[in-house]
Specification:
This protein is 32% helix and 24% strand. The protein has 403 residues and is α/β, with parallel strands linked by helices. It has 3 domains: 82 residues, no CATH class; 72 residues; 211 residues, Alpha/Beta hydrolase fold, catalytic domain (Rossmann fold, 3-Layer(aba) Sandwich). The longest helix is centred in the first third of the chain and has 37 residues.
């Protein structure tokens, strides 16, 4: 019996030890996966291969290795040697190996075959060079230091502005597609940056807070706009920029200035995004949910590297739909491979009185504009125009004094 008891005790210890090892491994995996989500990655490696460039063809073309990105419908850009840039249009031919696209414009340099990097923004550079518009480079003061922004003065409504916010790991160039539609409405435009951008001061932790702290930089941009004449503001955000502007529109002391919100491929529920990414990376859902808990735990957040706890429930607008008080336009493609549009559709169903969801079938993540620029701009202009305050009546003309 003594031997049996000893064996049983050894078995219990072994099982307990194995369970402990498994739990520790799961915790380490959860921490690693979650840390990657909140860690900025400013190094953008080459991701396409340019096989041939024919600028003398009719039409001019660029031939690339076929990938899900290079064969996607729409218009895109491509960088050569990190500095040269060209704009590409429709797909003229595609098979399993190669894709031939129309060469629409060479922005900089002489393009040639070799490695390149895909540009989902289509445009390259500040508005002055990419759009041919008059801009001012300004700095916006925040609690972390100055953040860079582009300012473009509107020609009509001097007191109504549009504030544009890019997504996670993106640059201000992502917002350029909305600049002309806003200027067409007479709005002034401010394209801002935020903490942990490559061009901006870093958060002390060097980590994203997925909108839970970045909204303060948008608040600072709102204040800058108000100090320079804005009475009413429309917020536009892409991807994580959508999460950021929703926080600013509901938590800022300047939220009463916000008249409407436009979201493109937005994150309205981080739980859903992280669950999706865990499936893509073949992680057990239990590991992902462990990461969610670590983010909001006072000790767990230190393992992730966050400055303060991050409760994803505060960023879940499907659950918090009743708290929305502003008109919202959501453009979110059925084909979004990175941020699935299920939560966006659910938000629309939860608040049909405030949330307008524009159906969109094509377009990878935040690429709806790329697939149909004219429609995207028309939809955004129409929505924003419908929610602008009535223009102030013109002052009566001075009458001639009769003597």
């Amino acid at each position: 019996m003594t031997g049996v008891r000893a064996a049983a005790k050894l078995t219990v210890v072994t099982v307990a030890g194995t369970a402990g090892v498994v739990a520790a491994a799961a915790g380490a995996l959860a921490a690693y996966f979650t840390r990657r989500v909140v860690t900025p990655d400013h190094v953008k490696p080459d991701d396409v291969w340019i096989i041939d460039v024919d600028q003398d063809g009719d039409p001019p073309t660029v031939t690339l290795q076929a990938t899900p990105e290079t064969t996607a419908p729409g218009r895109y850009g491509v960088w050569f040697d990190g500095r040269r840039h060209a704009r590409l249009g429709e797909v003229l031919h595609a098979d399993r190996e190669v894709v031939v696209r129309r060469l629409e414009q060479v922005d900089t340099g002489v393009i040639r075959s070799g490695p390149g990097r895909w540009n989902g923004y289509y445009y390259c550079g500040p508005p002055a060079t990419s759009l041919g518009l008059v801009q001012q480079d300004v700095e916006i003061g925040t609690d972390l230091g100055p953040m860079r922004a582009w300012y473009l003065a509107g020609a009509g409504r001097a007191d109504t502005w549009a504030l544009l916010v890019h997504g996670r790991g993106a640059t201000r160039e992502e917002c350029l597609r909305a600049v002309r539609p806003m200027l067409d409405l007479g709005l002034s435009v401010l394209v801002c940056s935020y903490r942990n951008d490559a061009e901006s001061p870093a958060d002390p932790s060097g980590r994203y807070h997925l909108g839970d702290s970045e909204w303060r930089d948008v608040e600072a941009a709102l204040l800058w706009a108000v100090e320079h004449g804005a009475q009413d503001v429309v917020l536009l955000g892409w991807s994580m920029g959508g999460a950021i502007v929703l926080q600013a529109a509901t938590r800022s002391w300047l939220s009463d200035r916000v008249r409407a919100v436009v979201l493109d491929g937005p994150v309205v529920d981080w739980h859903a995004v992280l669950d999706h990414q865990s499936k893509v990376n073949h992680l057990p859902w239990q590991v992902t949910r462990m990461g969610h808990a670590m983010l909001r735990h006072p000790l767990g957040r230190r393992v992730i590297g966050l400055r303060e706890p991050l409760d994803l429930r505060r960023l879940d607008w499907v659950t918090r739909a009743a708290e929305l008080h502003l008109p919202v336009l959501v453009i979110h493609s059925d084909a979004d491979e990175f941020v699935p549009n299920g939560p966006s559709l659910a938000l629309g169903r939860a608040r049909p009185d405030l949330v307008t969801v524009e159906p969109w079938q094509q377009g990878r993540h935040t690429k709806e504009w790329n697939t149909d620029p004219q429609r995207w701009e028309r939809v955004v202009r129409t929505f924003v125009a419908a929610h602008l305050p009535a223009p102030a009546p013109a002052a009566p003309a001075a009458r001639d004094v009769i003597t």
